[in-house]
Design goal:
Blueprint: E1 4-9, E2 21-25, E3 28-34, H1 42-45, H2 49-54, E4 67-72, E5 78-88, E6 92-103, E7 111-120, E8 125-133, E9 137-150, E10 154-167, E11 175-186, E12 190-199, E13 204-217, E14 221-233, E15 243-253
Antiparallel strand pairs: 1-15, 2-3, 4-5, 5-6, 6-7, 7-8, 8-9, 9-10, 10-11, 11-12, 12-13, 13-14, 14-15
């Protein structure tokens, strides 16, 4: 059995709250929606991180063993993912996946869920997952990836997702977020991606341009540097700007 543990140090820059009172955080111009009682971290819930965990290691062919991933957040919490194959043949694998985001170590967490994922030996994949966000509601996500090109030096993968959010507060309606990205990797060492996601309820579109560089790769471990820029555009954001992010990721198989 092969397991992987991934430690990712990154910068999380956006959060959103919950009633239809739109406000601006002058330190970081993002849309806030307030419900007067609770504060909801919608941006983390609507990010593409779940899709990345479900279909981890886009540049590798199908990994047929159970594996897991562990990543850290700047606030000291952790994200955990497990993926266990249910059915495998020469070309396809159906797996059960489970995720916990923002685990505090004392039983608390920001989101938890699970679902099913399909992976093809040629790098294609799809998943249907659900997650529960305490004090906010539930989400259902359908995601897919298509490996457009793969040879000894080049890899191009396109990904797309759609998320339906069901807030527990009756004053906040159900809403959809959808998006996708295209990623390119050269020689399994240098990569770049362009992504976008949109939420109609907030009239908000997020853009991202990311890059990664493999610093070290051994038989059972890998170290990568990741950096990029992201920007949010909305009529409720009078002056949006590109925000930088950077981090290191370490992966260990054993």
């Amino acid at each position: 059995m092969c397991k992987s543990i991934t430690i990712i140090l990154s910068v999380l820059m956006v959060c959103a709250n919950g009633r239809y009172l739109i406000k601006e955080d002058y330190r970081s111009p993002y849309v806030f929606v307030e419900d007067g009682r609770n504060v909801y971290d919608l941006e983390e819930a609507l990010s593409e991180d779940q899709q990345e965990l479900t279909h981890a290691n886009n540049f590798l062919r199908v990994r047929r063993q159970a594996h897991g991933a562990l990543s850290s957040n700047p606030d000291g919490t952790s994200n955990v993912m497990a993926k266990v194959p249910l059915s495998v043949n020469d070309k396809n694998m159906l797996s059960a996946v489970g995720t916990v985001s923002g685990a505090s170590g004392n039983g608390g967490f920001k989101a938890a869920g699970g679902g099913l994922a399909w992976d093809n030996v040629n790098g294609h994949g799809a998943s249907v997952t659900g997650q529960h966000i305490p004090d906010f509601g539930d989400q259902l996500t359908a995601a897919a990836k298509l490996n457009v090109l793969h040879n000894d030096k080049h890899d191009v993968t396109a990904q797309a997702f759609a998320t339906r959010t069901f807030p527990s507060n009756p004053n906040v309606p159900n809403f959809d977020t959808y998006g996708g990205k295209v990623g390119y990797t050269y020689d399994d060492k240098v990569g770049a991606s362009l992504g976008m996601q949109h939420t109609d309820l907030f009239k908000k579109t997020d853009y991202s341009a990311m890059g990664n560089l493999n610093l070290f790769k051994g038989r059972d471990s890998s170290l990568d540097f990741n950096a990029g820029m992201s920007k949010s555009v909305s009529p409720y954001i009078p002056s949006s700007r590109w925000e930088p992010s950077a981090g290191l990721s370490f992966t260990k198989w054993f």
